[in-house]
Protein: Fe(II)-dependent oxygenase superfamily protein
Amino acid sequence: MSLIELPNRKVIYSNQNLFSEGDLSSIYSSIENSLFAFSEVYDNNKKVFSPEERKSLSYRLDSLPSQITDTIMAEVSKLSPDPYLKIIDWQIIKYPTGGYFKLHQDKSEQPNINNPKVSNRCFTFVVLLNNDFEGGKLVLHAELNQGSNYCVGLSLCKNRGDLIIFSSELFHEVQKITKGTRLTLVGWIGIN
Ligand SMILES: O=C(O)CCC(=O)C(=O)O
Ligand SMILES: [Fe+2]
Structure:
């Protein structure tokens, strides 16, 4: 378990090996019947398909197993005592070989007028669902000191079942997958 506290109340928290095989297979089985779409990005508050920015598939799940959401929220409560925080959105993301997600924020300083769910984001969580791929590092670019000193290359989500939670304003990227397919459960915690 590790907690990195950054300026402006931003945090990066990780807990390795949090999810059991049973937990992970409950997620896998929910993917089987769900629809996938080519992943989109926000450009000026509008959702657009932009393969230069992002190459992956997103699976829209209606719900998550309660053992998964309970475990995630128990971890969130270690970061913030706010009783109104909850999981407001989630998806499974699949990155085939050659897939990536370039440097971005999940919430920017400007409010997203088209999708208030985005502006309501406080934390992003990522659960790594598999290990049998190469490349595909989730890298957080943590600003340590008023824009001048960046700690680049912080890679904390490495093994199947690892959970990472970070402030949604932090810049991050998923580097190119060079072999195999990378699968993650990604979601956002906020106040609705
Ligand atoms: O797949 C990941 O590890 C992160 C995905 C991501 O950054 C996002 O969906 O905003
Ligand atoms: Fe992201």
User: Anything to note?
Assistant: Residues 66-79 form the longest helix (14 residues). Helices lie at 21-32, 66-79, 116-119.
